Amino acid sequence: MPSSGPAQPPSPPGTAKRGRPPAPISPDAGPSHRAWLEPVRSTLFTSGLTLDDLVDRSGYSKTRISELLRGNGYYPAWEITFSVTRALGVPTQPLRRLWTAAAREARKGNDWIRHCIQQVAHDGDTPPLPYQAFTETMQPAYSEYARAFLLTDQRTRFVVHETFDILWLSWGEAAASANLNRYAWQLFRSRVMLRTPRYPDGQPDLRAAVFSTCEIHDNNPGHLVALTELIDLFDALTCLPDDQMDVAVLQHLCGLSGHQIPDVLGMPPAIVRAVDHHARATVEVLLNTPTPE
């Protein structure tokens, strides 16, 4: 049984050596499982704690903790997940939401999930004020970008909230990074691309986003021509390098102004202008290159 004693936070940064990284995550762990497991492992590594330390602080055996950290075997119950992560000082509220999504991914029923959570009493965490300010600022732009690729409001909300929960778990690392906005964007983008429909060659498929554009909804006599042209345009956008595609999508599909995009991407305005210039030139070449028969 897990210890009921108070959690002991990790040593302050700079006072402990990095611990040995755990064994690699099992390939059987799904995307939602990795969403919380990766930041937890990162916290353990930077904390300087060992598996023996976690055994002492959580009350669980080294074997069970090792399996949890590898995502190996059965999906872990909330009780052991909470006990181990509490020993690491990981905030519970975002972790519980991520754990719940991963439990559903692992085909756990709602009754099992509810029972697991009810075994552990815990007050809600209060997110850091800078985190709250950052996520409130970025949510509109992030939502528009996610909707361009994921199409539905439900998928959009899920991936944005998932990103913000992971960011909360990793807030110490994110806030200490050289560029918080860039750190957060790259995290968010990776979660969107993980769930984006793709062509067989792996290229993102934006064709369905064409039907949300005003040109198609105008229902003018030339809408079939516009549809074909837009499909070609959106296919060209997804052939661009990552930064070029992001600038093009944010500006032309999401409607962000040139003043907003640098802050969202965490890039200097001059770099964003240069990236946009290269993106336009590349798209023009792609659209004017004859398709091989």
CATH superfamily of the largest domain: PhyR, sigma-like (SL) domain
CATH level 1 name of the largest domain: Mainly Alpha
Number of helices: 15
Q: Structural class of the secondary elements?
A: mainly alpha
Please tell me about this protein's structure.
- It is a single chain.
- This protein has 293 residues and is mainly α.
- It has two domains: 31-118, 434 Repressor (Amino-terminal Domain) (Orthogonal Bundle), CATH 1.10.260; 129-288, Butyryl-CoA Dehydrogenase, subunit A, domain 3.
- It has 15 helices and no strands.
- Helix 12 (223-237) packs across helix 15.
Please outline what is shown here:
The chain has 293 residues and is an all-alpha fold. The chain contains 15 helices and no strands.
Which properties best describe this structure?
single chain; 15 helices; 2 domains; 62% helix; 434 Repressor (Amino-terminal Domain); mainly alpha; elongated; Butyryl-CoA Dehydrogenase, subunit A, domain 3; 0% strand
